[in-house]
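User: Hi! I have a protein structure encoded as tokens and I'd like to know what sequence might fold into it. I'm fairly new to this, so please keep things simple.
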């Protein structure tokens, strides 16, 4: 179960960047290295065609939150799709989302351990260690869920965060394991403001 305070922060970070989505940053040049994903979750593999970065910032009292989201998808037009409708994906989409959240306002290169969302812990502050998560979803032609899972262990390694994010991942789910590399360009750079939204992430929409 997701931590209550994290739900509020993610809702604000992911749902309140509408102002930035109206004037998103332009696409960066194509990545130097195509994303690669090995393994499967609940029997579903990911034929990676694109890797993009969504970067958000928000302030909660004295805590400055930065959230880096890497989306690795089988949709080669993932960035255009995110700019058009950030919180939805189209039928037939298979998506791995890697997230790193820090509480000092910055995302730095390094290796971040992925842990299960157990609902423990209180509201963070500037001394709270960064947190990482990974989520997998696969949808059929009618948006039926073929697989939906959140990682319980593993690591996300950021080698560079210049103009996007480059690195590797090794994440374990109840239904399998995924490893791979990404060289993702920055797609959306937003700043959250206003009351929290209840939208916690992308869903499939025909």
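Assistant: Happy to help. Inverse folding works backwards from shape to sequence: for each of the 206 positions I chose a residue that suits the local structure. Here it is:
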């Amino acid at each position: 179960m997701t931590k209550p305070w994290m739900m509020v922060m993610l809702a604000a970070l992911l749902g309140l960047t509408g102002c930035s989505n109206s004037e998103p940053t332009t696409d960066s040049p194509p990545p130097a290295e195509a994303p690669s994903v090995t393994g499967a979750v609940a029997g579903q593999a990911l034929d990676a065609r694109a890797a993009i970065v969504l970067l958000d910032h928000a302030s909660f009292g004295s805590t400055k939150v930065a959230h880096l989201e890497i989306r690795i998808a089988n949709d080669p037009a993932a960035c255009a799709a995110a700019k058009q409708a950030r919180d939805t994906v189209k039928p037939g989409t298979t998506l791995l989302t890697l997230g790193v959240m820090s509480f000092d306002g910055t995302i730095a290169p390094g290796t971040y351990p992925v842990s299960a969302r157990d609902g423990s812990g209180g509201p963070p502050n500037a001394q709270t260690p960064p947190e990482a998560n990974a989520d997998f979803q696969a949808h059929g032609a009618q948006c039926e869920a073929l697989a939906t899972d959140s990682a319980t262990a593993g690591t996300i390694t950021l080698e560079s965060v210049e103009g996007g994010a480059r690195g590797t991942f090794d994440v374990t789910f109840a239904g399998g394991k995924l490893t791979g590399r990404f060289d993702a360009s920055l797609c959306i750079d937003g700043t959250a403001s206003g009351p929290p939204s209840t939208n916690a992430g992308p869903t499939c929409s025909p």
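A useful reference point when you look it over: Helices lie at 4-15, 18-22, 78-84. Feel free to ask if any position seems puzzling.
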